[in-house]
Amino acid sequence: MKTSETGAVVSLIFILSSQCSAILTGNYEHITDNPVFGCRWIGGISPGVVCVCRDDVEEMYITKKSISSYDTSSIEIQCKSVRFGPESISEMRNLRNIKLKSIQTLNFDEHSLKWYGYRDVDHHDEPYDISTPSLQIEIENSTIGTISSYTFEGRINKIRFDGVTVENLSPFAFNSLRQTQEIVLRNVELQNAREQAFKKFSTENFELNGVKSPIITSRFLFNVTVYNSFKITNCDFDTVRPGGFIVFNPRSFQVTDTKINHLDAEAFKVTTRGDILFRSNTFNVINDGAFLGIDLNSDETVLEATISFDSNVFTKLTRDSLTVNENFRSKFSNLYINESCDCKSIDHNIKDTEFYSEIKCLHENEFVTVKEFKTNKCSIIQSYSTVIVIVVVVFTLCLIIGTVLVMYYRRVYLSKKYGSEKGTKKGNLSMIVPDGRTYRETELHVIVERADLLTTDL
Predict the structure, then answer these.
(1) 382 membership: H or E segment, kind and range
(2) How far apart are CA 239 and CA 232, in angstroms?
C-alpha cells in the first residue's frame, strides 16, 4: 500500500511540474504568446515586440522559431535571465533593432546573433553601403555569462555595450561582420577575454570607452580594419600583451585617459593613415619598444603624420621606452615621472634622447622639469658624486699598491741582490771579478798609509 501511494504522489508531482513548465516555457507557438514573458506588440507598419518578464520566470530561451520571423522589426527584452539559442534571429528578415537591458544573466550560444537579412551570400569584400539592410544591437546594464564563438556575425551595422559585465568572451565572438559602421564598448568589464575575440572584419569606427580588463591577450583585436577612428578612452588594463591590438588603416588613433599597468613590447600593432595621440595616460611598466609596432600606411598617406605624447604619467623611462617608427614625426610634451626629484634619479642614458627636456619629476608637490631641477638644485659634485667616489677609491688603491711595491723593491729585492750592509768588514771593499770560465769573488784589501811632514833640519 505504501509503495503504491508513494508512486501515486510521485506521478502527481511529475504531472504538476510538467504542467507548470508548459505554462512557463512551452506549449506556445511563440514566446510572445506566453503571458509570463509580458510581451506586447508595438507600432503599425513595422511592428516590434517588447517583453518585460515576470519575476518568477527562470529563463527566457529564444530559439529559431520563438518569435515571428517575418513581421518583427525590433525586439526589446527586459528579463532576469535570457539565453539566445543558435541562429535564433537568422530568419527574421525584417528585423532591424535588438535592445537588451537590465538582464542579470544573459548568454549567447554559437551563431545566436547571426543575421544576413535578405542577401544570404557571404561577401567578404562587401563594401559599406548605407542602403543595404543591416541590424543594430544594444545591450545595457546587464551581466553576460558567455559570448560564444561566432555570436555576432553577418550584416550588423551597430553594436553597443553600455554598463555591461562580460564574464567569458570566447575566441571569434565578433567575426565576419559586414556593413558595420560602429562598435562601441562603454563602461564594460571583461573578466575573461580570450585571444581573437574580435577577428577579421571592417568597421568605420571602433571605440573602447571605460573598458576594464585584467589582461588584453595577444591578438585580442586581430586583423580588424577601421576606416575612420580607433579610440581607447578612460580604460583600465592591467597587462597588454604583444600584438594585443592588431588594427589596420584607421584615419586617426587615440589612447587617452587610460591606465595600463604593464605594456609589453609592440603591444599596439596599428597601421594608420593619419596622426596618433597618447594623452593623459598612466603607464607603470613599459617594455622597450612598446610603441614601435605602430606604423604608417605610406601608400595611402600624403601628408606627414605625427605621433604625440602629451601629459602622460610614467613610473620609469629608459632610452627605448618611447621609441617610435621613423615614418612619424614624434612630438613630446609634459612627460611626468611619478617620483620625487633627485640628482641621481634620472638615468643618464636618456639625457641625449629627444624627450629628455620634457621629463618632469615631483619637487615640493609640484612637477618641474628634470633639466631645470638639476641645473638649479644639483651641483657638479652632487651630479657626479658616484664618479668622484669611484675615482677616489681607485686612486687610493693605486697609491697603496704603489707604496707596497716600492717598499718591497727596496727592502727585499735589492737586499737579496746586493746583500746586507751589516755583515761587511769596516774599511774593506768587495768586488766581483770574472776569473777564467767561472766567476769568483776576489777580496781586495786597500791599505792606506799616512806620511807625516819631515821635521829634521837639513
Answers:
(1) helix 380-383
(2) 15
Is the full-model pTM beyond 0.90?
A: no
Using a pLDDT cut of 90, give the percent of the chain over it: 53
CA–CA dist 456, 458 (Å, integer): 6
Domain ranges of the chain: 42-194
Are 456 and 443 in contact by the 8 Å Cβ rule? The answer is: no
Residues linked to residue 285 through DSSP beta bridges, in sequence order: 262
Predicted confidence (pLDDT) per residue in 89-136, tens digit: 999 989 999 999 999 999 999 999 999 987 766 556 677 788 888 999
Give the DSSP per-residue string, 295-331: EE-GGG--SPPEEEEEEEEES---TTTT---TTSEEE
Q: To 5 degrees, how large is the angle CA 265–CA 266–CA 272? A: 160
DSSP state of 258: -
146 phi/psi in degrees, rounded to 5: -145, 130
Residue 32 main-chain phi, psi, to 5 deg: -70, -20
Q: Are 24 and 57 in contact (CB under 8 A)?
A: yes
The residue whose grid cell reads 597601421 is: 271
Within 10 angstroms of residue 313's Cβ, the number of other Cβ atoms is: 17
Is residue 176 predicted with pLDDT exceeding 70?
Answer: yes
- 14 vs 20: CA distance, rounded Å: 10
- Tens digits of per-residue pLDDT, 131-160? 888 999 999 999 999 999 999 999 999 999
